[in-house]
Amino acid sequence: MNKDKIRKTINNNTITAVRSLIALSYIFTLLFTSIDDLFPKHHLEKLSASIQGHSIFRLNYFLWFDNLYVPYAISLILLIIIALGFIPRIMCFIHTWVTYSIFYSMLVVEGGDQICVIMTLLLIPISILDQRLNGWFPKKIFSEIKYNFFVYNASVSILFIKLQIAILYFNAGVSKFYAPEWSNGTAVYYWFNDVIFGAPKWLANSFIGYLFTNNISVSIINWSVIILEIFLFASLFYKQKYKYLLFILGFLFHFSIFIVHGLATFSVSMTAALIIYLFRTEISLSENINDIKQLILKTLKNEKSIFRKSKVS
User: Fold this and answer.
1) From the centroid of its chain, how far is CA 57?
2) CA 181 to CA 187: how far, in whole Å?
3) CA 18 to the chain's CA centroid
4) Which residue range forms the structural domain that includes residue 128?
5) How many domains does the chain have?
6) Gyration radius of the chain's alpha carbons
Protein backbone atom coordinates (compact mmCIF):
# COMPACT_ATOMS: atom_id res chain seq x y z
CA MET A 1 0.00 0.00 0.00
CA ASN A 2 1.15 3.54 -0.72
CA LYS A 3 1.01 6.41 1.76
CA ASP A 4 -2.28 7.76 0.44
CA LYS A 5 -4.04 4.41 0.85
CA ILE A 6 -2.76 4.04 4.40
CA ARG A 7 -4.01 7.54 5.23
CA LYS A 8 -7.44 6.61 3.86
CA THR A 9 -7.39 3.27 5.69
CA ILE A 10 -6.73 4.76 9.12
CA ASN A 11 -9.37 7.45 8.61
CA ASN A 12 -12.13 5.11 7.44
CA ASN A 13 -14.08 2.55 9.45
CA THR A 14 -13.45 -0.78 7.70
CA ILE A 15 -10.61 -1.65 10.08
CA THR A 16 -12.82 -0.49 12.96
CA ALA A 17 -15.47 -2.97 11.83
CA VAL A 18 -12.89 -5.75 11.92
CA ARG A 19 -11.78 -4.83 15.45
CA SER A 20 -15.40 -4.53 16.61
CA LEU A 21 -16.35 -7.94 15.25
CA ILE A 22 -13.35 -9.50 16.99
CA ALA A 23 -14.47 -7.83 20.23
CA LEU A 24 -18.06 -9.04 19.69
CA SER A 25 -16.81 -12.59 19.21
CA TYR A 26 -15.30 -12.57 22.69
CA ILE A 27 -18.29 -10.71 24.17
CA PHE A 28 -20.62 -13.46 22.90
CA THR A 29 -18.29 -16.12 24.30
CA LEU A 30 -18.26 -14.51 27.74
CA LEU A 31 -21.99 -13.73 27.89
CA PHE A 32 -23.41 -16.97 26.54
CA THR A 33 -21.10 -19.54 28.11
CA SER A 34 -20.96 -20.43 31.79
CA ILE A 35 -18.02 -18.74 33.48
CA ASP A 36 -17.22 -21.99 35.31
CA ASP A 37 -17.07 -23.85 31.99
CA LEU A 38 -14.85 -21.21 30.39
CA PHE A 39 -12.47 -20.76 33.30
CA PRO A 40 -12.57 -23.79 35.62
CA LYS A 41 -10.83 -23.19 38.93
CA HIS A 42 -8.53 -26.21 38.56
CA HIS A 43 -7.44 -24.98 35.12
CA LEU A 44 -6.55 -21.48 36.36
CA GLU A 45 -4.69 -22.95 39.33
CA LYS A 46 -2.65 -25.05 36.93
CA LEU A 47 -1.90 -21.98 34.80
CA SER A 48 -0.87 -19.98 37.86
CA ALA A 49 1.57 -22.69 38.86
CA SER A 50 3.10 -22.72 35.37
CA ILE A 51 3.91 -19.01 35.11
CA GLN A 52 7.13 -19.37 37.07
CA GLY A 53 9.97 -18.50 34.71
CA HIS A 54 7.59 -17.41 31.94
CA SER A 55 7.31 -13.62 32.19
CA ILE A 56 4.93 -13.36 29.22
CA PHE A 57 2.32 -15.42 31.09
CA ARG A 58 2.33 -12.84 33.89
CA LEU A 59 0.51 -10.46 31.54
CA ASN A 60 -2.58 -12.65 31.80
CA TYR A 61 -4.75 -10.66 34.23
CA PHE A 62 -7.06 -13.62 34.82
CA LEU A 63 -4.27 -14.95 37.02
CA TRP A 64 -4.04 -11.76 39.07
CA PHE A 65 -7.29 -12.09 41.03
CA ASP A 66 -8.71 -14.66 43.42
CA ASN A 67 -12.23 -13.64 42.45
CA LEU A 68 -12.81 -14.76 38.84
CA TYR A 69 -15.66 -12.28 38.33
CA VAL A 70 -13.25 -9.33 38.54
CA PRO A 71 -11.25 -10.13 35.34
CA TYR A 72 -14.50 -11.35 33.76
CA ALA A 73 -16.15 -7.94 34.33
CA ILE A 74 -13.00 -6.08 33.27
CA SER A 75 -12.95 -8.05 30.00
CA LEU A 76 -16.59 -7.31 29.19
CA ILE A 77 -16.27 -3.59 29.91
CA LEU A 78 -13.11 -3.20 27.82
CA LEU A 79 -14.48 -5.28 24.94
CA ILE A 80 -17.67 -3.19 24.80
CA ILE A 81 -15.58 0.02 24.67
CA ILE A 82 -13.51 -1.51 21.84
CA ALA A 83 -16.60 -2.68 19.94
CA LEU A 84 -17.99 0.86 20.13
CA GLY A 85 -14.81 2.10 18.45
CA PHE A 86 -13.44 4.46 21.07
CA ILE A 87 -9.83 5.70 21.01
CA PRO A 88 -8.41 3.07 18.61
CA ARG A 89 -4.84 4.38 19.05
CA ILE A 90 -4.84 3.33 22.71
CA MET A 91 -7.47 0.60 22.78
CA CYS A 92 -5.63 -1.48 20.13
CA PHE A 93 -3.01 -2.36 22.77
CA ILE A 94 -5.66 -3.10 25.38
CA HIS A 95 -7.58 -5.19 22.84
CA THR A 96 -4.55 -7.41 22.30
CA TRP A 97 -4.04 -7.70 26.04
CA VAL A 98 -7.70 -8.67 26.64
CA THR A 99 -7.85 -11.27 23.86
CA TYR A 100 -4.51 -12.73 24.97
CA SER A 101 -5.68 -13.03 28.58
CA ILE A 102 -9.03 -14.60 27.67
CA PHE A 103 -7.59 -16.99 25.11
CA TYR A 104 -4.86 -18.30 27.40
CA SER A 105 -7.25 -18.63 30.35
CA MET A 106 -10.09 -20.54 28.69
CA LEU A 107 -10.05 -24.30 29.06
CA VAL A 108 -11.61 -24.99 25.65
CA VAL A 109 -10.83 -22.78 22.66
CA GLU A 110 -11.62 -22.97 18.96
CA GLY A 111 -9.92 -21.73 15.81
CA GLY A 112 -11.81 -18.44 15.78
CA ASP A 113 -10.43 -17.50 19.20
CA GLN A 114 -6.86 -18.03 18.01
CA ILE A 115 -7.49 -16.00 14.85
CA CYS A 116 -8.76 -13.12 17.01
CA VAL A 117 -5.60 -13.07 19.14
CA ILE A 118 -3.36 -13.00 16.07
CA MET A 119 -5.37 -10.33 14.25
CA THR A 120 -5.59 -7.96 17.23
CA LEU A 121 -1.80 -8.10 17.54
CA LEU A 122 -1.21 -7.53 13.82
CA LEU A 123 -3.72 -4.65 13.73
CA ILE A 124 -1.67 -2.58 16.20
CA PRO A 125 0.67 -0.97 13.58
CA ILE A 126 -2.43 0.24 11.72
CA SER A 127 -4.54 1.33 14.69
CA ILE A 128 -1.80 3.38 16.37
CA LEU A 129 -1.96 5.79 13.42
CA ASP A 130 -5.67 6.44 14.01
CA GLN A 131 -6.04 9.76 15.87
CA ARG A 132 -9.84 9.78 16.03
CA LEU A 133 -11.87 9.69 19.23
CA ASN A 134 -14.13 7.10 17.65
CA GLY A 135 -13.09 4.91 14.72
CA TRP A 136 -16.63 4.36 13.49
CA PHE A 137 -16.85 7.90 12.09
CA PRO A 138 -14.80 8.39 8.90
CA LYS A 139 -12.86 11.64 8.48
CA LYS A 140 -13.12 13.64 5.28
CA ILE A 141 -9.86 15.51 5.94
CA PHE A 142 -7.12 12.94 6.40
CA SER A 143 -4.39 13.36 8.98
CA GLU A 144 -0.84 13.60 7.66
CA ILE A 145 1.53 10.77 8.62
CA LYS A 146 4.87 12.32 9.51
CA TYR A 147 7.13 9.28 9.29
CA ASN A 148 7.29 6.80 6.41
CA PHE A 149 8.42 4.16 8.91
CA PHE A 150 4.88 3.96 10.32
CA VAL A 151 3.38 3.78 6.84
CA TYR A 152 5.70 0.89 6.02
CA ASN A 153 4.77 -0.93 9.23
CA ALA A 154 1.04 -0.50 8.57
CA SER A 155 1.41 -1.70 4.96
CA VAL A 156 3.37 -4.78 6.01
CA SER A 157 0.84 -5.50 8.76
CA ILE A 158 -2.11 -5.48 6.36
CA LEU A 159 -0.22 -7.65 3.87
CA PHE A 160 0.82 -10.09 6.60
CA ILE A 161 -2.78 -10.43 7.87
CA LYS A 162 -3.97 -11.17 4.34
CA LEU A 163 -1.23 -13.75 3.83
CA GLN A 164 -2.15 -15.39 7.14
CA ILE A 165 -5.80 -15.68 6.13
CA ALA A 166 -4.90 -16.94 2.65
CA ILE A 167 -2.68 -19.65 4.14
CA LEU A 168 -5.43 -20.53 6.61
CA TYR A 169 -7.89 -21.24 3.78
CA PHE A 170 -5.23 -22.99 1.71
CA ASN A 171 -4.44 -25.32 4.60
CA ALA A 172 -8.14 -25.89 5.33
CA GLY A 173 -8.82 -26.85 1.71
CA VAL A 174 -5.73 -28.88 0.84
CA SER A 175 -5.54 -30.79 4.14
CA LYS A 176 -9.00 -32.24 3.50
CA PHE A 177 -7.60 -34.27 0.60
CA TYR A 178 -5.65 -36.33 3.14
CA ALA A 179 -8.73 -37.17 5.22
CA PRO A 180 -10.56 -40.25 3.83
CA GLU A 181 -14.00 -38.86 4.75
CA TRP A 182 -13.38 -35.69 2.77
CA SER A 183 -11.71 -37.34 -0.22
CA ASN A 184 -14.54 -39.86 -0.60
CA GLY A 185 -17.20 -37.14 -0.28
CA THR A 186 -18.88 -38.20 2.98
CA ALA A 187 -17.38 -35.87 5.64
CA VAL A 188 -20.26 -33.39 5.70
CA TYR A 189 -22.70 -36.25 6.34
CA TYR A 190 -20.87 -37.24 9.51
CA TRP A 191 -20.48 -33.65 10.73
CA PHE A 192 -24.15 -32.86 10.02
CA ASN A 193 -25.29 -35.90 12.01
CA ASP A 194 -22.68 -35.69 14.78
CA VAL A 195 -24.16 -36.15 18.27
CA ILE A 196 -22.38 -33.10 19.74
CA PHE A 197 -21.68 -30.74 16.83
CA GLY A 198 -24.40 -31.93 14.46
CA ALA A 199 -27.41 -29.99 13.18
CA PRO A 200 -30.36 -29.23 15.50
CA LYS A 201 -33.43 -31.44 15.10
CA TRP A 202 -35.53 -28.76 13.42
CA LEU A 203 -32.92 -28.49 10.66
CA ALA A 204 -32.17 -32.21 10.42
CA ASN A 205 -35.90 -32.94 9.92
CA SER A 206 -36.29 -30.29 7.21
CA PHE A 207 -35.52 -30.40 3.48
CA ILE A 208 -31.97 -29.33 4.35
CA GLY A 209 -31.58 -32.55 6.30
CA TYR A 210 -32.48 -34.56 3.19
CA LEU A 211 -29.59 -32.95 1.30
CA PHE A 212 -27.20 -34.46 3.85
CA THR A 213 -28.60 -37.97 3.43
CA ASN A 214 -28.75 -38.09 -0.37
CA ASN A 215 -25.52 -39.48 -1.90
CA ILE A 216 -25.38 -36.98 -4.75
CA SER A 217 -26.13 -33.83 -2.73
CA VAL A 218 -23.76 -34.89 0.07
CA SER A 219 -20.91 -35.27 -2.41
CA ILE A 220 -21.71 -31.92 -4.04
CA ILE A 221 -21.76 -30.10 -0.67
CA ASN A 222 -18.62 -31.91 0.47
CA TRP A 223 -16.56 -30.94 -2.59
CA SER A 224 -18.07 -27.45 -2.72
CA VAL A 225 -16.57 -26.75 0.71
CA ILE A 226 -13.10 -27.81 -0.45
CA ILE A 227 -13.34 -25.87 -3.72
CA LEU A 228 -14.59 -22.74 -1.93
CA GLU A 229 -11.72 -22.81 0.56
CA ILE A 230 -9.16 -23.14 -2.23
CA PHE A 231 -10.81 -20.31 -4.17
CA LEU A 232 -10.76 -18.17 -1.02
CA PHE A 233 -7.02 -18.75 -0.81
CA ALA A 234 -6.57 -17.81 -4.47
CA SER A 235 -8.72 -14.68 -4.07
CA LEU A 236 -5.59 -12.98 -2.73
CA PHE A 237 -4.66 -12.53 -6.41
CA TYR A 238 -8.13 -11.73 -7.83
CA LYS A 239 -9.61 -8.48 -9.06
CA GLN A 240 -11.77 -6.64 -6.53
CA LYS A 241 -15.14 -7.64 -8.02
CA TYR A 242 -14.23 -11.32 -7.64
CA LYS A 243 -13.06 -10.68 -4.09
CA TYR A 244 -16.49 -9.26 -3.29
CA LEU A 245 -18.12 -12.35 -4.81
CA LEU A 246 -15.90 -14.61 -2.72
CA PHE A 247 -16.75 -12.55 0.37
CA ILE A 248 -20.45 -13.25 -0.16
CA LEU A 249 -19.81 -16.97 -0.60
CA GLY A 250 -17.40 -17.06 2.35
CA PHE A 251 -19.83 -15.20 4.60
CA LEU A 252 -22.68 -17.56 3.68
CA PHE A 253 -20.38 -20.54 4.26
CA HIS A 254 -19.42 -19.44 7.77
CA PHE A 255 -23.00 -18.38 8.56
CA SER A 256 -24.18 -21.87 7.56
CA ILE A 257 -21.61 -23.33 9.99
CA PHE A 258 -23.24 -21.21 12.70
CA ILE A 259 -26.75 -22.41 11.78
CA VAL A 260 -25.79 -26.09 11.47
CA HIS A 261 -23.14 -26.47 14.18
CA GLY A 262 -23.95 -23.54 16.47
CA LEU A 263 -20.46 -21.99 16.23
CA ALA A 264 -21.61 -18.38 16.44
CA THR A 265 -18.35 -16.84 17.65
CA PHE A 266 -16.37 -18.67 14.97
CA SER A 267 -18.70 -17.23 12.34
CA VAL A 268 -18.20 -13.70 13.70
CA SER A 269 -14.41 -14.12 13.86
CA MET A 270 -14.19 -15.41 10.30
CA THR A 271 -16.43 -12.59 9.04
CA ALA A 272 -13.92 -10.14 10.53
CA ALA A 273 -11.11 -12.02 8.79
CA LEU A 274 -12.97 -11.99 5.45
CA ILE A 275 -13.57 -8.22 5.69
CA ILE A 276 -9.91 -7.31 6.08
CA TYR A 277 -8.94 -9.98 3.56
CA LEU A 278 -11.39 -9.17 0.76
CA PHE A 279 -12.69 -5.63 1.34
CA ARG A 280 -10.97 -2.42 0.29
CA THR A 281 -9.69 -1.05 3.59
CA GLU A 282 -9.09 2.43 2.15
CA ILE A 283 -12.84 3.06 1.77
CA SER A 284 -15.57 2.93 4.40
CA LEU A 285 -17.58 -0.15 5.35
CA SER A 286 -20.75 1.35 3.83
CA GLU A 287 -18.92 2.05 0.55
CA ASN A 288 -17.72 -1.57 0.40
CA ILE A 289 -21.24 -2.82 1.05
CA ASN A 290 -22.62 -0.46 -1.59
CA ASP A 291 -20.06 -1.76 -4.10
CA ILE A 292 -21.22 -5.31 -3.34
CA LYS A 293 -24.86 -4.28 -3.90
CA GLN A 294 -23.96 -2.68 -7.22
CA LEU A 295 -22.05 -5.81 -8.24
CA ILE A 296 -25.05 -8.02 -7.42
CA LEU A 297 -27.46 -5.74 -9.30
CA LYS A 298 -25.15 -5.59 -12.32
CA THR A 299 -24.76 -9.38 -12.32
CA LEU A 300 -28.53 -9.91 -12.10
CA LYS A 301 -29.09 -7.39 -14.88
CA ASN A 302 -26.58 -9.16 -17.14
CA GLU A 303 -28.13 -12.55 -16.38
CA LYS A 304 -31.57 -11.19 -17.14
CA SER A 305 -30.32 -9.76 -20.44
CA ILE A 306 -28.72 -13.09 -21.41
CA PHE A 307 -31.95 -14.94 -20.55
CA ARG A 308 -34.00 -12.61 -22.72
CA LYS A 309 -31.65 -13.01 -25.68
CA SER A 310 -31.70 -16.80 -25.40
CA LYS A 311 -35.49 -16.73 -25.19
CA VAL A 312 -35.78 -14.59 -28.35
CA SER A 313 -33.38 -16.82 -30.30
Assistant:
1) 25
2) 5
3) 8
4) 3-312
5) 1
6) 22
